[in-house]
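User: I'm writing a short methods note and want a consistent example. For Strictosidine synthase conserved region domain-containing protein, I'll paste the sequence; you return only the C-alpha cells, no commentary, since I'll be parsing the reply automatically.
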Amino acid sequence: MGAAKAICKFFFRRFLEVTIVCLLLLFMPNVPPYTKIEEPYTVAPTRPLEGKLVLKESLSDVEIWHKGDLIGPEGFAEYNGELYSSLATGEVVKLTGEHITPVVKFGKPCKGAYEERICGRPLGMQFDKNGLLIVADAYYGLFRVNVKTGDKELLVSPDQEIEGKKVKVFNSVALASNGDIYWSASSTEFTIENGVLDLLADPSGRLLHYDVKTKKNKVLIDKIHFANGVQLSDDEEFVIISETPRNRIHRYYLKGSKKGVHDIFIDGLPGMPDNLKSDGKGGFFVPLIVAVDSENKALPQIIGPYPAIRKIAARFLGVIQLIFKTVDKHYPNEFSQKAIHYKEKWAAMVPAFLPAYWR
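Assistant:
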C-alpha cells in the first residue's frame, strides 16, 4: 500500500505541476507570441481514396534529377526549354542537363540554411511573356528578374503596408496574360521560420492582386491559414489558392457573373496542399506536403477546434524561442541560432533535431 500511495502521490504532483504551467501559459500577460489565438476552426473530413482519388503509381518511375545537389528546391519555372529552380540558399539556378548555373541571389551572404532570414528564401516563381522571371522571396519581397543578367527589380517590399498590414511571408505567384500578378502572402504575423506558430495562431494569410500598370496591390481573400500555392485557370476565369493546414483550396472568380465572389474549390484533401500547377487540360496538379487520412490525422485537424490548447502550445514554443534568443544575444553561438530556426520551422512538426536538418 505504501508503494502504491507513493506512486499516486508522484503522479498527482506531476499532474498539478503541468496544470499550473498550462494555466500560466494560458492566462499570463505579455507572453510571446504576441498574436491572437481565439478562433476555433475545423478541417473537413478527408475524402476517401476512391474514384478519382484512388492511389495510382503514375510517378513510380520518374527520373530523379540532381539528387543531393540542390538544397531545398521549391519553385520551378521553364522558359525556352530550360528549367529554373529556387533554393533554400537564397538563389535561383538554371538546370541544364547535369549543369547547375547560378542566376540570381537574394538576401545577403550567410552561414547556412539556419540563417534563412539573412540568406533569403525564394519560393514561387513564373516567367512573364517577355522572359522576365517573377519571384517571391519569403523574406525580401516580390521581384522581377532578368535571368540573362541577374538584375532584379523589387515590385513589392516587405516594408510596404497593404490594406493595413505588412507581409511577413511572400510565397507563390501566378501571372495573367496581361502581366498582372496574383500572389500569396502566407502570413502577416509570422515569418516562414515561425511556420508552426502561424499554424497555431488565427489565420492571417492573403490572396493578392498586383496591377502592373498602377503598381498597386489589392487583397482578394483575407484570413487564409498559411496561404500557399496560387494558380490561374487556363481561361483565367478564376484563380485558386491553397490553404495548407486546412487541406483545402479556395477559388476567386475574376470574370463572369460571379466576378469578385470566392468559394471553396475543394476541401477534404488527403493531405496538405502546397504549390499548384495547371495540367493544361482544364485541371490542376496539387502536390501534398503531408498525407492524411481518417485514421492518421494531421496536427491542425486535431487541435484546430481548441484555441486554448493552441495558445498553450504557441506560448510554450514562444518561451523556448525567447530563451534561445536571449542566450544568443548575450553569448552568440551557432547552436542557439539553429535551435531558433529549426524549432519554429515547419520541420518542427517532426523531431526537430534530426541530423539532416543541421546543415
